UniProtKB/TrEMBL annotation:
It holds the Pfam family SRAP. The keyword Protease applies. PANTHER family: ABASIC SITE PROCESSING PROTEIN HMCES (PTHR13604:SF0), DC12-RELATED (PTHR13604). SUPFAM superfamilies: BB1717-like (SSF143081). Keywords: Covalent protein-DNA linkage, DNA damage, DNA-binding, Hydrolase, Lyase, Protease. This is Abasic site processing protein. The keyword Signal does not apply. Belongs to the SOS response-associated peptidase family. Its EC number is 3.4.-.-. InterPro entries: SRAP, SRAP-like.
Length: 226
């Protein structure tokens, strides 16, 4: 079980953009299932992700377990929910997925907590224009055959530094196709073709401490300014 969400680098987010809109954005077919609006998505749950299995096939919107543990690690392996951008391409646990199994995790915003506050004070971070975000992620097949993923994080930029020293790696629109491309495997080529979103597009505000309890706090009121 993953615990201590509030101390993680990127441990909670919201997704309420309809799947049809997300599918159009990434060129994927619209899945039959409808997105369940979630305002407090926590680790250790099924989340919406975008992946591309072959360069000759369009991306697909899938459900992945938020917790990365490749099949070879067995059930006793670590199950991280984040991977650091500084080491994801070279760390033995992640490098194969970085080269061949990259994904996008769509979100409307994410939460971080101000340090040394009691109770922990969450802030909601999102685009100023309220467009959906696409976090860079990696995934692997788990021991049970399902897919599990981790969100890549980078040092905080822009106003996000007010809240935390890390943030999810958010890709700009021009990078989405390159990030998903399964034939793009070279680290330096990926680095030259994939870029993060302009930090000036992000803003944040304090929200209810109900976010601290994912079982109890789930409504749309969670993203309202406190």
């Amino acid at each position: 079980m993953i615990i201590g969400y509030a101390s993680l680098m990127c441990g909670r987010f919201a997704l309420f953009t309809p799947l049809e809109r997300l599918a159009r954005k990434v060129g994927a077919s619209v899945p039959e299932q409808k997105v369940v609006f979630r305002y407090n998505v926590a680790p250790g749950t099924w989340i919406t992700a975008v992946r591309q299995a072959s360069e000759n096939e369009p991306p697909v919107i899938d459900q992945m377990w938020w917790g990365y543990r490749p099949r070879w690690a067995k059930s006793t392996g670590n199950q991280p929910i984040n991977a650091r951008v500084e080491t994801v391409a070279t760390n033995a646990y992640f490098k194969s997925a970085f080269a061949r199994h990259r994904c996008l995790i769509p979100a409307d915003g994410w939460y971080e907590w101000i340090k040394d506050t009691k109770p922990k004070q969450p802030h909601y971070l999102c685009r100023k224009d309220r467009k959906p975000l696409f976090f860079a992620g990696i995934f692997a097949e788990r021991e049970d055959g399902s897919l599990g993923c981790a969100i890549i994080t980078e040092p905080a930029r822009g106003s996000a530094t007010d809240v935390h020293d890390r943030m999810p790696l958010i890709l700009d629109d021009a990078s989405l196709e390159h990030w998903l491309a399964p034939d793009l495997t070279d680290r330096e080529t990926i680095r030259s073709m994939v870029h993060h979103l302009d930090a000036d597009l992000i803003e944040h505000w304090p929200v209810s401490t109900l976010v601290n309890k994912p079982v109890e706090g789930q409504g749309e009121e969670l993203i309202n300014p406190a």
